[in-house]
Amino acid sequence: MSSLAANSIILYLLVAVALVMLGLYGLLVLKDPIRRLIAINIMGSGTFLTMIAFARRQDPPDPILHALVVTGLVVAISATAFALRLILAARESREAATSGSTEAEDE
Amino acid sequence: MNDALLSLVTPLVAALIVLTGPAMTPRRASVVVLLGSAFSLAAALLALQTVTASGATQTLNLGGWEDGLAIRLRLSPLSALLLAFTALIHLLAGLYARFSRFASGDDFWVLSAFLHTALAALWLSADLFNLYITLELIGLAAVAMVALSGPKAYQAAADYLLLSLAASMIYLLGVVFLYSEYHTLDVMQLASVSADSARTRLALALITAGLMLKGALWPLHLWLPAAHAGAPAAVSALLSAVVVKGPLFILWLVWTEVAPADLAREVGPMVATAGMIALVAGGWAAMRSPYIKVLVAYSTVAQLGYALMALGLLMSWQIPQMHIALWLFVIAHGLAKASLFMAAGEMQGTLGTRRLTGLRGATQTVPIAMFAFAVAGGSLIGLPPSGGFLAKWVLLEPILSQPQNWPWAFGILLGTLVSAAYIFRVVVLAFDRATINPPDTRPHLMGHWLALLPALIVWGMALLGEQLIGLLAGGGV
Fold first, then answer.
1. In chain B, how many domains are there?
2. What is the pTM of this model?
3. Which domains does chain A have, with CATH numbers?
């Protein structure tokens, strides 16, 4: 495996920046929590792609960055699972509150 | 270093015992976690003593790998002090959660022990990626703790989690850019090689934005009131007292060590201005809030403004007084805010209302909790001889000595005025004995006294003032 040419690394970096921007835009504009979670994951993909692209600047590829990406993926997956459960629980509790007759607000 | 590691591992062991121990009732869990906090506090104090006696920062490469590959831990007087502070707050909040009548949820114990571990790891880390991991651990534990107040807090917890995840991603992207330029993640190595370049600036901007969002620093604070006000009282106390200080610590680390000094000098005034605006805007929102806990939560936004201001002035002037002022603020605010949230929780539980107007006559119906609120509020305002006064005095001294710095002093005075306004708004209502809001239940005095405890400690800080200043005067780390 040889190191990638500078041009193609720049191409990968541009794609990564586009992904991060897309995710950030989604996070700011979208309202639905699951869509926002997906937006955050797209941002995460952009970040990880940046790391992998930087790793390929040398031959052999930088193992530290690879290790960081693997760690980051583990964190992202667990956090996403937790967020999904929490979002669903929030939705259920909201539906229960609206259907549950005239449950008064606190006060 | 061994004492510090012990202080880090103890809460983790306590959490694992609670999780796996046979027949673990909430009562037993509370005993295990409280013992863990007390032990961790003792270990942190020992570490503090050794590190100040030797006067040198100690480092440890995890796993014995060489520099650059290893995750480095570092014990400085400041990190030892923060370890002790975190353990103390956890102990106080734990005692309150154990003896107050208003439940914090059975899972409070294991989560608070995990939170304690993650925070301790944060204070000891000197590696930007490891700091990212600790930030995520803190975020996950904190979100789960917000959700402890039951289904009505799930929405706030979910919003908090999403923002926290996004903030860490932005921070991580900044860290990656720094790595791509300097090929190291170690704070001490970065400090010696970092230079002013476009990529460094971009990286620092991303790191700063991510951390400001995580730490609820103005203008990225909007998520804080819902999350902190929605949680059970003991959890709100932990969140406001220590959790928001984690990102602040990393911000301080990045700007005083990693960033080139000239760049820090350039950005400093902007950070200090953001702090000043936070003071006024947060204070104004607190003053107008109709709910007790939301008032206290906005006051966190405002008080973080002082810390941000001290950080900004530290960056632009690079004088050790600002370093002292910054960390004194962090500790004084942590103790006072823990007290305020616990007192607010006790009062709203006993009086059966979340509204501020329900506090009419609180000096008669819940006198001890109200006293705790007023005493802790006094420290936030900065009345002498509280810890808040000490911090503000150290902050004001260098500002007042130079006439060209007086605009900053004006900001601090304005902030003090606003803090006084929102604290006295509560106190005045509490003294209104003409139209008393009768309590729903008989006050449960133990919780009230425990809410008072941190407030008394923050007033006692003045007695330790000289030692604390001497400890922090080592400057840098």
1. 1
2. 0.93
3. 6-99 (1.10.287.3510)
